[in-house]
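Entry 14. Two folds queued back to back today. First construct below, sequence then structure tokens.
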Amino acid sequence: MLFWIVAAAMTAAVTALVLTPLLRNRQTGGALPGPRAAYDMEVYRDQLAELERDLARGVIDNRQAQAARTEIGRRMLAVAEEGKRETASPGASSGKASRAVALALCVVIPVGALAVYIPTGEPNLPGQPFASRETKPENGAPAQVMQAIAKLEQHLKDEPNDLQGWLLMGQTYTRMSRFDDSVEAYRHAVGISQGKEPGILSSYAEAMIAANQGMVPEEAARTFEAVLQSDPNDARARYYLALARGQAGDMRGALDRWVELAAQSPADAPWLPTVRQRITETAGQLGIDVASVMPQPLPAAPQGEAAAPAPGPTREQMAGAADMTPEQREGMIRSMVDGLATRLRDNPNDADGWLRLGRAYKVLGEQDKAVEALASGAKAAPGRVDVLMAYADALMVAGGEEDAPPPSAVAVLREVLAIQPDNPQALWFLGLDAARTANKGEASQLWGKLLTQLQPGSPEHAEVQSRLDGLARGG
């Protein structure tokens, strides 16, 4: 009996809640209160403000921001138009209809509740504790997925050194937008792998960026730097380190790094569209013609074939090298370098191969061979700024001049400046050459242009400013 009394009271309360707006609508003539439309407009204004903040922080790009503005604007216009129609429509004519609906609901609500409850309800069923009830899916994930995640979490508690388990957990948390949990999962994976797997380090750093709402934190930048120590060609690390430059205010530095990454990426690389979009946006912010800096990517691998990996030691060779004597290790490296040189004699148009060979000779201390290899690379790809800069650097090292580049390097640097008028390295070294030859006007012009690209307060900015001050004093 107590149950039915409580049920009747609850039904009466629900009926009153439903009928009150209808009766009030009848009394006020059915006019829609203005605060609702005003509230909606205020929400959309807040969304526009948040959108601008996300754009300023680099969380979204200009194209995404424009699309979002258009959608929010459409919704604001719809609210405004709806408000006009409802304000103009007479409300008195709806009084009879509201009264009829109210009377019908007085009957339908209690009768409908009884019709549903009597065949299915059990008033004598004891209460069920909340902890024993089935939990709702998280982030829209099916119950089976949540059960699998719970099993994986329990497995990792029992087997905390399961590297593949932590990687799977990190990927799963990322897909569920649980970025903080993803960071912790990848942190465990990094610990188990002892920080020696570049792919795991990159995933860890990327998770930190996602957890930081698109901003590159200092720890993520350091992690990506460690990745490049192991794999200088890691596209993910190169992309995000360029992004960190841009977020720190060095837009020109970010642009140069994205341009270099695009030039060294295959045409079918999945990251290339994103890199090109960044180049376009950053060049626009700097007032640079995009066509003058947008590089051509490397040819894509033939359909059905995987891109050939860059020549280098395999994992087994690297493991074996750890047990070699220094002489044996040097012999292995020499063998690989000689093999690359032989291959390039049969394929002299492989600019990237010449670039790798030149760098290898430089590491071995054979500067003359490095110059020859990089000269071949510059010949194979005359417009490749990265190859030309490596060639100029080799010429400067071989020349042994620290204060200014030798004439051969100056000629190459002028080629670079003709392709990239704002290239910071070319501006710096050509300024040194101009200052050495007492061409103070040219040196001042070159370094002044370089100064605009550097962040005030940085060591580089201070050095260039000091050089300009010395020119002004006649030193």
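Second construct, same run, same settings:
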Amino acid sequence: MEDLRLNVALLRRRVPNLTSAARAVGLRPATVSNLSTGKIPVGRAEVRTLVALASLAECSLDELIIRGEKVEMMETGIKALDLFAPLTKGGTVGLVARPGMGQLVILSEVFYRLREQGHATVLLKPEDNQQGVSDILDAADTVVESIKEAYEHIAQLGTQQQVLFAADRSYVLTGEIQELQERLLNIGIDSVTTFLVDLKGEAVDEDLPYGPLETLLQFDADLAARHMFPAINPIYSTSSVLEGAHLDQTHLTIQQRAQKLLRRYRELRSIVNVKGSDSLPATEKQTYKRGELLEAYLTQPFYVAEEFTGQKGETVTLKETLEDVRKILDGASDTKDVKELSYVGKMK
């Protein structure tokens, strides 16, 4: 059963207003989202849920459920992203954040890093000239003004190389993104990884704001307020790559252990903020310290921010990230100070 996953692309094309459609047939949008990203394995889904989704998409269960197809990860060298919510090649990535949490910075950084790996980057220019848009305009190889222009450009590029395409949520609400993706698939272009952002910050308050996704990057207000970037929430960010059949078991084990530690650490932070760290039992003090170290380690200097931070950008391979995180989890870094791990690359 581990090689089963939802045909997210089909679901997205057939049911663009999935939130309201799901509710209308008695499904929780959160459940649909978790099935799409693999947070809930298809094998554990209720039969009635899958039947309802197939009915909404007007397809058979065989069309809705894909068997034996491996999801390919795109490694970015960004520790938090590669560990908790790996990008899915050819999938759709949704960034959920309020303004000021760094979503455009991380999009610019991903564009920069993957462009170095040979990907072409295309941005559909947002209709509103909001704060930070100029930075992402500079990060893209090509900026297009319309869906029609995006289709023509990507159709040409997609036969030669992998394409990263980014657009604002406003184009999702009109259904134009879904139409674009379907037109590209109809001509055999499946090499496009789509990034959807929300410049107005409204997606935070909605279920399935982009429809079903292969990768969800949920940003965290607390991390952003403490200037711990990238402010990717390690608990709620997820990816279909994390399904057991698609991920190296070592990665999956370390990712789950890291989430468990950070979940408990966040609970303890609430206690420490009120009563102080001395109120914690000895075993919980150890958990708290390791959580602090891991949270600090997951910060990272970005290449696109060098001019503003004065710090050189750092790339950390997934292998190095897993090795370092394992050390923190196992206590091998307990003697280190939190400041030693803040905004570094690989742990020394």
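Quick look at the second one. The radius of gyration is 20 Å. The chain is about 45% helix and 10% strand.
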